[in-house]
Predict the structure.
Amino acid sequence: MFSICRPTGSITLLIIQPLLVVAAIGQDYQLQSLYGSVELNGNFGPEPYVVSLTAGGFNDAGAISTECVGYISEAPSFELEFSNPLAPIGMFVISNADTTIVINDPAGQWHCNDDFLEDGDTSSGYNFEYPLSGIYDIWVGTYSTDENLSPAELYLIDLDPRWESDSTIENSSDSLLPISFGTGFVVSSSGHILTNSHVVENCSQLNFQLRGEIAVQSILIDANQGADLALLQADVDVEPANFNSSQSVRLGDEVVVYGFPLLGDLSSQGNLTNGIVSALSGLNDDLGRMQMTAQIQPGNSGGPVMNRSGQVVGVVVETANDEYFREQRGASIQNLNFAIRDSIARTFLDTNNIDYHLSDSSALVSVADIADSAQNFTGIILCYQ
C-alpha cells in the first residue's frame, strides 16, 4: 500500500493570560488603520472575524513599554469598535513568522504579547477577560526585522461560554481555536458545501469563510470516510458550482484547481494552479481518483478541480508521499497529485438528495474567468476543537 500525504493545513494554538502593560507615552497615534476597521457587538457572530494583513513595520514596539518587543507600523494594523461586551474576547495572530501583538484599549491602556506559550512559541495574542466598550487599536508586528512584512491573519474570537462543554470560560478559549483548515465549495442554492472527510475529522465546530466575507458557522450533514467526502451546510447565498454533465474527463485534459493552501503564508484571497490530467486512476489504480499535474499544498484539500469550461470534474484529496517513494523505491517523485472523480462526488451528493447544478457546455473559458467564478463559491473551512 502506497503512503499518501493529504494536503490539509494544521495550526496548534494555546492561550495563556499575558501581562498588562501601561504605556506612559503621549504620542498621538491616531492614524487611519492600514487594513480597515469593524464594528462588533458582544456575543458577535458568525466568528471568528478574520483580517488578512502584513505583519511588521519599522517602529520599535519597545518605545511603548519595556514589556513590548518587536517592530510595528506607525499606524494601527486594524481597528475594532466593540460594543455591549457580554463575554471575553480574544485577539490572536496566525503566521509562520514570529509575531508580536500590541493593543491600545478604549481606556488608553497598552497590552503586548509575543508568545502564547513559554516553550519558544512564535504565535501572539491577547484575551480580554472583561472587555470594555470602545475602540481597540491593534498592531500586528514581527519579533525581528528578519521577518518584517510577513503575511499574517488576525483573528477576533468571541469567547462566549455558550460554546463550552462545561460552563468554564477557560475551556471555551481552547475549544474556539482553529486546529486545522482546508477548502470547500458551495454545491447547492441551499448553502451545501462539499469538502473532504479528513478536513472535518475531530472538529467540534466548523466555520466556512468565502473570500471577503465574515466566517459563518457550518453544520456537518454527512461524511463518507471511504470516499473521503463530507457535506456541510451554512448560511451562504452564492451561485453554486456547476458539475460537468456532458462527458467524462479524458487523459490530457486541462484542469484548474482553486483553494486556500498554506493559510497565513500564501494569499488569503485564494490560490490558483492549473495542469493536465496525467492519469485516469489514483494510487494502486484507484478508479475513484484521477492524477493531475496541477500543484496542491496543505490547505487545498476539499477544493474544486475544474475543466476549461469552468465545470467541476473532481475534488482535491491527496498528494503522494515523497519520503515513502525515496525510502521504498529509491526515487524522488515530483508533482503526483490526486483528486476524487466527479462521478464519486455526485453519487455522494445524490445519496444526500442534494440539488446540485449541472452544465453541458463545452465552450472554453479563460483561466482568469474560471478563477473569478471559483472565488465566488469556494472558501476556507476552519476546524475547531
Notes: The chain has a mean pLDDT of 81.
